[in-house]
Amino acid sequence: MASTNDLKNGMVLNLENQLWSVVEFQHVKPGKGPAFVRTKLKHVLSGKVVDKTFNAGLKVETANVDKRDMQYLYKDGESFVFMDSSDYEQIYVTEPTVGDAARFLLENTEVMVALHEGNPLYVELPASIVFEVTYTEPGLQGDRSNAGTKSATIETGTEIQVPLFVEIGTKVKVDTRTGAYLGRA
């Protein structure tokens, strides 16, 4: 249990037997009436974001979430296999739990897996990863109809937008949150 005065970004709360992560919080002390805490909470499993207001000093139940550094090994049917870097224990994480992160998962990529009572909640990728471009059309000099970018396929099979000068075999840095091109590596 924790007080609403102790809330921090990233803290996971157990509200009505559902896990919610604190995205934002703000302590408000109006001139008239009691203080309260305005929060923005994200449902850990579905990703739904809601606004919730708590009275200041109210006790809320916190969830014990274990965040571990793991290495992605391979995909086995409908599951992704990760290995704990500290004790070499392997866990299977289902496709819905991995979610959008699957677009940027390369074998041997170091990721962070959040576990609650042994069950995987979500997979968090590094902010950016370097990929090799496996296919792209040649860029035509002077073609500016699409703001100087073209489609390129990276080694995971995901398509991203890159500048015209990028060729097949080029290593590029990609933002894993947005899929945006960040530069050559």
Automatic annotation (TrEMBL):
CDD domains per record: S1_EF-P_repeat_1, S1_EF-P_repeat_2
Entry GO terms, CC: cytosol
Elongation factor P C-terminal domain sequence ranges: 129-184
Biological process according to GO: peptide biosynthetic process
UniProt key word Protein biosynthesis: yes
Main location: cytoplasm
Biochemical pathway: Protein biosynthesis; polypeptide chain elongation
Positions of transmembrane segments: none
Domain annotation Translation elongation factor P/YeiP central: ranges: 67-121
Annotated keywords: Cytoplasm, Elongation factor, Protein biosynthesis
GO molecular function: translation elongation factor activity
Function as written in the Swiss-Prot or TrEMBL entry: Involved in peptide bond synthesis. Stimulates efficient translation and peptide-bond synthesis on native or reconstituted 70S ribosomes in vitro. Probably functions indirectly by altering the affinity of the ribosome for aminoacyl-tRNA, thus increasing their reactivity as acceptors for peptidyl transferase.
Record family assignment: Belongs to the elongation factor P family.
Protein name (database record): Elongation factor P
Classification of source organism: Bacteria, Bacillati, Actinomycetota, Actinomycetes, Micrococcales
This protein's encoding gene: efp
